[in-house]
# Entry
Amino acid sequence: MGCGAEGVTKAVLAAAGVVAEHRTELIELDRAIGDADHGENMNRGFTVVVAALADATPETPGEVLKIAAKTLISKVGGAAGPLYGTAFLRAATKAADQSEVDAQAVVELLRAALDGVRARGKAEVGDATMIDALTPAVAAAEAAAAVAGADIAAVLSAAADAADQGAESTVDLVPRKGRASYLGERAVGHMDPGARSTALILRAFAEAAR
Amino acid sequence: MGCGAEGVTKAVLAAAGVVAEHRTELIELDRAIGDADHGENMNRGFTVVVAALADATPETPGEVLKIAAKTLISKVGGAAGPLYGTAFLRAATKAADQSEVDAQAVVELLRAALDGVRARGKAEVGDATMIDALTPAVAAAEAAAAVAGADIAAVLSAAADAADQGAESTVDLVPRKGRASYLGERAVGHMDPGARSTALILRAFAEAAR
Amino acid sequence: MKKIINDPADVVAESLRGLALAHGDVLRVQEDPALVIRADAPVEGKVAVISGGGSGHEPLHGGFVGTGMLHAAVPGAVFTSPTPDAVEAAVAATAGPAGALLIVKNYTGDVLNFETAAELAEAEGTPVRSVVIDDDVAVKDSTYTAGRRGVGGTVLLEKITGAAAERGDSLDDVETLARKVIGQVRSIGVALTAPTVPHAGTPSFDLADDEIEFGIGIHGEPGRERIPLESADALVARLVTAIVEDLPFASGDEVLLFTNSMGATPLVELYLAHGIAEKLLAERGITVTRRLVGPYITSLEMQGISLTLLKLDAELTALWDAPVNTPALRWGI
Amino acid sequence: MKKIINDPADVVAESLRGLALAHGDVLRVQEDPALVIRADAPVEGKVAVISGGGSGHEPLHGGFVGTGMLHAAVPGAVFTSPTPDAVEAAVAATAGPAGALLIVKNYTGDVLNFETAAELAEAEGTPVRSVVIDDDVAVKDSTYTAGRRGVGGTVLLEKITGAAAERGDSLDDVETLARKVIGQVRSIGVALTAPTVPHAGTPSFDLADDEIEFGIGIHGEPGRERIPLESADALVARLVTAIVEDLPFASGDEVLLFTNSMGATPLVELYLAHGIAEKLLAERGITVTRRLVGPYITSLEMQGISLTLLKLDAELTALWDAPVNTPALRWGI
Ligand SMILES: Nc1ncnc2c1ncn2[C@@H]1O[C@H](COP(=O)(O)OP(=O)(O)O)[C@@H](O)[C@H]1O
Ligand SMILES: Nc1ncnc2c1ncn2[C@@H]1O[C@H](COP(=O)(O)OP(=O)(O)O)[C@@H](O)[C@H]1O
Ligand SMILES: [Mg+2]
Ligand SMILES: [Mg+2]
Ligand SMILES: [Mg+2]
Ligand SMILES: [Mg+2]
# Structure
């Protein structure tokens, strides 16, 4: 029931796919309240992640996540690059050299990712950032993992559902971090692009785990 | 039946009025095939002509025309400034110090103006310039003056009618002088702004002479 | 979208190739990571002044690389902060034991990426200091936002610290000077039209024909408020008031006034606005002793202007006047 | 119309006021007639190089007034040639017994007004020569038109004749040099959008979102033909071909390549285009030894570019390199 390097690779490739598919949507969300590059940045990074994974032969989930982390840090730029990069890097560190991760481990990786993004970006829930998607996702994953017999798919599916809701919640918020914060009240009514991309990526992970 | 300084002043003021009224139309004609300034240039110049005539006390037709000429030369700029300036200056010179002009003299002033514009601008009939309005106007004025008992009003009215037709003829021409010449065939279908202003001014003269 | 480009993904790389050809006497360009480097770098014994950020603000930063100003510029994708490895490569290419000063505009992305780069470079043994410029008074309350943005003041900061490094100031001294400049420079901008990011393909915001964005940033992010188009006199007064009522300008001050075009505002309008601004400052007893007028920190083809005021003293004036030889600023050489 | 202006009728005068404030060290401005004059004019014993034309092409001509370039610039209304008395006043303010060279762009209005001015100045006893620059290869057949227009080559002509005057060349020699430059400089431009003349209030022509005007002039007068928007590679190749296939460029030539923004085309695109142009010229065996890249002869807020090629020899290269200190071009000083 665990997931090895291959499974994690599949999940990361699925994330790359969903980012490519939603590139324009993410650009449009960022155009409304930011600088119209979030979809382009994420897609540029994940395209190289796909190439990097094809070139490498990672043997553990941690190695896969580390390749993704380093690529995102060196290819995405902007705010999302360091934040997603940190998320993947912290998860990689947490995974250490385990050859497989189980449902409980997945929760721990998600929590490590969240802690990393919070430490880097200093955003709180309610600031209208990716934190608003990732925080409820981790809580939901934790709750799902506490159910006897929960598998990775169930955990990630719960996380994705919660992230969707969390992203939705940013529509009504006044942003306090990132570029959208300059807009203040005028940003109300728009979904945060980073929260949306977080929800999309978690959904891709969940689908890959089924 | 002659016309003195006062009558010529009245005619020039009428021309200023018609140029102001048609400023936008002349800009629009020039926008289509030139640089969108003919109405602005003419209006800037004639506005100062009105002020200059108010400040001066010209005693002969020639003096009135000379004030107009010098003002147009120093205020209009572009192609129209030197060309209209020359037209008025040559007419002024022709009028010399006569205290009045009669119908025959008006024809001579118009011919002097035409010769001046041709000498400065080197355009021929058919090049789609003000020459296409002024040339038939002078011919028509001459013909009208040849009719026994013709007065200034009749002469100028014939000139204005012919100028209208001449201006109209530029619509179908391929311009060979001035800014519109760069457009070649693409200018066909548009009236030349300078031909139009010439027709307007002659019409104003004719109305003033009635 | 109407642009003279090939594939939007190649815009920055292809543009840098042209920059290198046009200005090979003062700079060179490196690919992957993309860097603009002083032709004579590393300059023995001198602090390397380095800046960077998203592209689309040219001449900032690559056009300010050269003697007396930047040692390297790190261009990111259009409107996107460069990545840490690129910044680290810039440090490695230009800085020696005298160290490097990183000039960072206050945007979350820039701050995070440059932070990581500084750590990486320090780990390699190069002394690095970072300063964050946040001169945009349009951002009102920094407690509840990512803080004020770095805008026009960046140009002045790069010139002045570059001159200090050129005369041989230590890293400590250049850093102290940078903080002093940041403390006394303020800016504000206005947009009449929106820029179009090449990879996005549509204008970054929609403005009616009679509307302007007051307090605009340089990335097409919308401004402080949307107001009706007004006369140059009224608009410049609004800009001057916003800056002067912020610290630290007072009657009796001598200042540098920087009137900047955001890209598509032509010089005829820019000089017109500059003249009004000087008049208004004089009325407040503020003396303009140095000026910079032109498109120096832009937002692609956005129409608009920004005003920047820097309080001067003898030292800053001398550093401003010091020789500079870059594609965009050149004097005394 | 979105512009930072007050009354459209006052645009030029108000803009000149700002220019004077911004660049009081190199020039001064006179009102009625409007003139931009070198701060140290008249320069004893030297030929005065004077140019002018309609406004809206800034920095041309006022931004090129200063040591080593123009002695005076005569700005007309927007896109309208100045009047003879203004040109004559410029001659009177700057020229002594060494005389004056008038640089006239080939447009009917400019030619007529400068012609009259030259006569007036000669009548006052100042030796005056006029040269008419007509470098725009977009105008095909000059027998049936007002002739080729003066465009980008004007900037290079003003720099080179200004340098010759500065080194003390006689009026004869400066005139001969000017005719030589005119003989070996060619340009062509393209517009992506139209400019809006302040007093007209609407764009000078209407272009669809996927159309460009190839062979555009600098006054919003439509170009040679309207073609679909194409890639930078294709467009620059079209421009280079149009110039190179005109006399007098051949393999083995050394040239100055001037890549000009018409106003609103940002530097990121301009450098991109410049890089492509250099590559294409190299493929034809033409060596670019000097470059100028930037918005130097513009058409208000028009998006577009022009390319200008000047065939160089040792003399022209030295004169190009000679010191110049003006608002828009500054080096060697
Ligand atoms: N301080 C922060 N903490 C967490 N997330 C942040 C922070 N600042 C920005 N973000 C996220 O980054 C997203 C923007 O990413 P992107 O558009 O790629 O970068 P940039 O803002 O530099 O253009 C925002 O939508 C938001 O979710
Ligand atoms: N060589 C010429 N001879 C006669 N008329 C001319 C000539 N060149 C231009 N014109 C006239 O001048 C008019 C344009 O005037 P205007 O727009 O004020 O000047 P510009 O072309 O300098 O902008 C044209 O419509 C044409 O009638
Ligand atoms: Mg963004
Ligand atoms: Mg015109
Ligand atoms: Mg960005
Ligand atoms: Mg004109």
User: Anything to note?
Assistant: Residues A 30, 34-35, 37-38, 41, 78-80, 83, 117, 121-123, 129-131, 177-179, 192-195; C 80-81, 108-109 surround adenosine-5'-diphosphate (ligand 1) (CB under 6 Å). Chains B and C do not touch (no CB pair under 8 Å). Chain B has one domain: 5-209. The CA atoms of residues 140 and 159 of chain B lie 5 Å apart.
